[in-house]
Amino acid sequence: MNHSIFLDQLLRLLTDEETDIAVLAMENVKRIATLENGLNLLFEGQNAEKLKQVMGKNETVAFRVYETAVDVSLLSPFALDKVKYFLDQLFIVLNSGDILLIMNSFELIQKLSSTSHGISYLEGNKIFDLLCSTVYMSHLLLPGKLKTYGAILFHKPELISNNILQFFDEAFHTDELTMLITIEIICHILSTPNGKTALFTFDNFIQKIAKTLSSLIKTGPSDVRIRGMDCVCEMFEYKQDWSPKYLSYHERWFEMLGDRQFIDAVFGIVRQPFDDLHVAALRVIRSVATQEWGQKILANFPGFEEWLFDRRTETCKDGKETKFDIAHVLLTSNTLGQTFESPFIIKLKVFYKEGPFHVQSQSEVALGD
């Protein structure tokens, strides 16, 4: 079988009523696109016309083609240029006013925003103007619209503007679920250096996010509290090769969360017997422990040393490992000696050497008590 017959039959399978078969066809189209001359074979001449013909069968098949085109576009700017016709068709859907089709398109747009050339394409098609248009005011589109903004801004936070933050602020006041989605998106953006830099200047907005986040962690339902604590961990994300200026940003944001009252609340959750809540709170303590300002807070927190070295506080595997990770980030920190005294550091080394699953003997427990 020559390649033209094979490709013709492969493209026809995109229309198959069996979803599994159509998905396999999509995967094979994407594999061929990665081969030498694969893009030209698929998206030029008669095969390009075949794809256009295939799209016309129904909306389900059209979205299979859109999804395939988006995935291929991620390969390179050249690949995006080859599938531009099909991406343009997707934008026609986005401009159609059909709420259901627009909802189905959001995930593809979010995926497209994961590359710089994809974002350039979206900017060229005035994606932000489109998202602000009257059609997109429907409450049904709000979660997808928020996530689309978030996906684009995560990869290119310098696009953040007062107008965009005003939209987030409005979404913030709709309902608790949308509020939480908004907070998660903002904190996800804050997990990157460029995101921290872009949002630091919007002090009042971050203050509102932090205040609400702190309140949700203290008083929200369990699932909301867990998601909220994970947001705090993203907010305080820091790697050793990043600029030290972000540490001062984090200290400022910690103050917005409530400073001592917030860490009191986190340790209050740590003392609860519910594993999922307990471990989420441990992750917050770990994120605070990675930074000098956080180590100072922990060093001055009443009972922190006794709690850290007491193996009995952890009953589940995740808890033992996360507490051990707190010891690890402290022990490997360049600022440990500046924030903790020698007796603590000696105990910390022993604790770490024993590993996460060490079981204290009765004599150790008595000595610790």
Description of the molecule:
This protein has 369 residues and is mainly α. It has a domain at 1-137: Leucine-rich Repeat Variant. The chain is 74% helix and 0% strand. It contains 25 helices and no strands. The protein has helices at residues 3-12, 19-33, 38-43, 45-55, 59-73, 77-82, 84-94, 99-112, 116-124, 127-131, 142-155, 162-172, 176-189, 193-200, 203-219, 222-235, 245-257, 260-270, 275-289, 292-299, 304-309, 317-331, 336-339, 342-354, 362-368. Helix 19 (275-289) runs parallel beside helix 22. The longest helix has 17 residues, at 203-219. The chain starts with a helix and ends with a helix. InterPro entries: ARM-type_fold, PSMD5.
Strand fraction equals under 5%
Main sheet attributes: strand count, strand direction, barrel closure: none
Number of helices: 25
The proportion of residues forming helix, as a percent range, comes to over 70%
Please give the radius of gyration in angstroms: 26 Å
Question: Mean pLDDT, nearest integer?
Answer: 91
User: What string gives the helices and strands in order?
Assistant: HHHHHHHHHHHHHHHHHHHHHHHHH
State the separation between the terminal residues, measured CA to CA: 79 Å
Low-confidence stretches: 365-369
Structural category is mainly alpha
Shape: elongated
Task: Determine and state the CATH class of the domain at 1-137.
Answer: Mainly Alpha
CATH topology of the domain at 1-137: Leucine-rich Repeat Variant
Q: Write down how many β-strands occur, each being a DSSP E stretch of 2 or more residues.
A: 0
Write the CATH architecture name of the domain at 1-137: Alpha Horseshoe
InterPro entries: ARM-type_fold, PSMD5
Protein name: 26S proteasome non-ATPase regulatory subunit 5
Organism: Dimorphilus gyrociliatus
Pfam family, one: Proteasom_PSMB
